Structure formats: C-alpha cells, structure tokens
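Lecture notes, unit on protein representations.

Consider one protein chain, 95 amino acids long.
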Amino acid sequence: MNSHLTPVNGTPRRRRAARPLPLYTTLDDVHTSAAMDDAAAAEQLIADLLALVDAGLVAPVEDAWGDIRYAAAVDDDDPDAGPHSDDGEGGLSAA
C-alpha cells in the first residue's frame, strides 16, 4: 500500500513549517526613522485639523453610522460661501 498519498488539496508537496519570529525585536534605523516621520506627520495633520475647526472653517459632522467626519463649514445664509447646493451637485461628494 502506498503510504505517500496525495493530499486532498492536490499538491504532493508537504508545506514547510513557518519560521518562528522573535516576539520583541527592534527595527533598523531606516524603519525607525520612517515611523517617527510618519508619527510627526500625523501629529501635524491633527494640529492643522484642530486649527481649521477652531477657525470655523471645518465642522465635525456625524454620518449615518455614527462616525465623526469633518466637512467644510458652510454658512447657509451666504450664497457665496462656497461649492454647496441642496441638490448635491457642484459640492463635495461622498467618496
């Protein structure tokens, strides 16, 4: 009797066991500096967003799922306030 049967998935090769990875490793200098740059850029984006909210140019809006999004604050009394219309055309679109 053949003791080396073809597996159900059809590949006759056995898969090699995964190589164990160390739990705690340090990143090399390139990856560490890139992560620090990303963190600094994210902090700058948040600071810019908060400045726009404080200036009244951007307002937080809750969407249908309860998530908070930020949109340009538009004054409905001012017709020249920006690209906004009630029919959904010509303004910001949900992407």
